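Methods, example record. To illustrate the input and output format used throughout this study, we show the complete record for Chitin-binding type-2 domain-containing protein. The sequence lines were provided to the predictor; the line carrying structure tokens was produced by it.
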Amino acid sequence: MPYEYTCISVFLSVAVLIRAAFAVSLQCNTNGDYQIIPKRDCKGFYICNWGSPVEMPPCPAGTRFSATVKACVHEGSDLDDCIPDSEVTTTGPLSVEERCDMFGGIIDHPTECQAYYNCSVRYQDVPRLLEQHMVECPYPKLFNADSEQCEHFENVTCGSRQEFKDACDYRLNKCVAAHCIPCNVRLGNCVGKPDGPSPHEAKLWSPYYVVCYKERAVEHNTCPPDAGGRTQIFHPVLNQCVSE
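The corresponding predicted structure is encoded as:
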């Protein structure tokens, strides 16, 4: 028997329960079907039994797991169809849904630095302005593709992904309903402004102002009353709170 098929005999009792057209998915289903889920590094696989994943022994040295034949095969052979997760990109032939089905895990958004895809997130009703599996970091955080986490924007290198500085460029801050208060009224904009207190452009000559840091509105503040208890407003020229 050729080496490529030795793993099939080992797991024959499981393989016969799997339909030939079965689509490998990230999560075990709960309908009682067995599933084989390839590992993202191509070095082995999991078997699902009634919704619970069980990690199987890794493939021998010099082999990788094939999702097609569902066995460990010689690396580089004609049967070696596994693509390590680090080599797959969303700009390649695989869609996000296909990547989630095959590998699961976290996928960085190809063009936006504040967004990413989490294959374990599946919306019954996809939120407006998002996509299936898409998650957005809270402003002003960005998604770090190395750590696969939302982090402080100073700690993230976006590369070719667009880095939004205005909170209103974040998808979840945009209006999706008819009676929504416009984002530029709710949130200040610091793009092109120096660090420190700055007027809220939609609320000039009011107590409201923003604090800018590296062109991000990192704080939204209100001027406190003065020593005499009188209301103060933020002066858009002096960039400070003054008594009315």
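Annotations derived from this record:
The mean pLDDT is 82.
Helices lie at 6-10, 12-15, 96-102, 183-186.
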